[in-house]
Amino acid sequence: MQALRRTAPFSLPIRILQFGQGNFMRGFFDWQIDLLNERSGLDAGVVIVRPRGGRGDALLDVQDGLYTTLIRGIDERGEEVKQYRTIRCVQREIDIASMYGDYLEQAKNPSLRFITSNTTEAGITVNDNDRYEDAPPSTFPAKLARLLHERFRHFNGAKDKGVVLLPCELIDDNGEALRAAVLHFARLWQLEDAFITWIAAACTFCSTLVDRIVTGYPAGEEERIAAELGAEDRFLVAAEYFYLFVIKGPAWLADELKLAGANLNIRLVDDIAPYKRRKVGILNGGHTTLVPVALMAGLEAVGEAVADEQVGGFLRAALDDEIIPALGMDRAELQAFAEDVLRRFRNPYIRHRLDAIALNSWPKFAVRVMPQLLRHIDMHGAPPERLTLALAATMALYRGDRIRLADDEASLRWFRDAWAAHDAGELSLQAMVRGWLANVALWGRDLNAAPGLTDATTRALEVITQHGMREALARI
């Protein structure tokens, strides 16, 4: 079967430079650009830059920039969705290690308006060993600073040749972090003050929040997918139905991106923080609440857990009655987001193993769940039943007889010793709970001071250890 290729000449003006060729950007960012081209006439071509380069993988150019997205999941009507789309917006790919001259030439393109990136959480960093004359420098911000300076010089500092930067790295305030890193290199390399002024006046750094699970090529489905497509696509990426792109930026950006009428889940906002709290509290917090309870109930995967009448009911009630009220935001909007989350958890095309999500459970619990648990205590004067049960279930999970645990060694050692002492009759469950809630390094304070939390957690842990998780759920 022949490879996916263009059958007729097709080109778009290069308006976007993208650092990162991975599955996520192709299944999230480029997919949205392709839809904006179709629905709103954005008319934007993308050049992908491999920021590390030199890995020997084939460039997307072997398929003329074409690739397929396969969107699968549960839609708003609760129905299964399966959608193929050929993505046409990518015009070429540049390997920066072997094509550095071509990379710098992109700075001279008068049509270039947007720069986006996904260089992993560790990508926005500085290395003072990076030099201006390196070809290329080692870090992404140094490469970007070099490109922007080339553009500044080529267009003599013209303000209308500034760019909008949309970093997609999963760190807080990624736009501000990227701006600071670029300016760091401008000063390190002693570039002219006019360039620094141009960065401030002509370039817009937007912080973003991105949300979509992109799983890449579906292993084991190659023959069936090729038959359905009528071609072989080495670069196909599968992704879930849900997506969200939140951009903190000026109002005029909506016109530049031609968002009006596109019907895409792209939010242009003044403040990303509420979206971050919503995601951490409901999506991440829902995961962290569900996992120990489901594992202790004998389940293996997220979809299986949500479908389980008892465990799935526990999660829904935890979201509706304990997590959402504690977030203190618009309830209708939070409930709609929670329904999206539950549909994502039920996605039959993504098997999320509970034991994989259980990695490093304690730091996750401290960030994702404990703020809502403590807020509930502040609001009602007593601990929430379900979040407290999740806390106790996590302690029971760290007995180590359900799954192979992965956490920091200090936490693992603490529970190993505590459970051994309990089994030897030397440590009561209440003393164990009291000792763990006193872990100021984890929680930021001694949680034994939270009204009722020590006793409620102890009671829940007693039921789990003596009667099992199913009985503990039945007693709520």
From TrEMBL:
One of its GO terms (cellular component) is cytosol. Residues 15-260 form the Mannitol dehydrogenase N-terminal domain. Keywords: NAD, Oxidoreductase. This is Tagaturonate reductase. The keyword Zinc does not apply. The keyword Transmembrane does not apply. The lineage of its organism: Bacteria, Pseudomonadati, Pseudomonadota, Betaproteobacteria, Burkholderiales. One of its GO terms (biological process) is mannitol catabolic process. One of its GO terms (molecular function) is tagaturonate reductase activity. It comes from Noviherbaspirillum pedocola. It comes from the Bacteria.
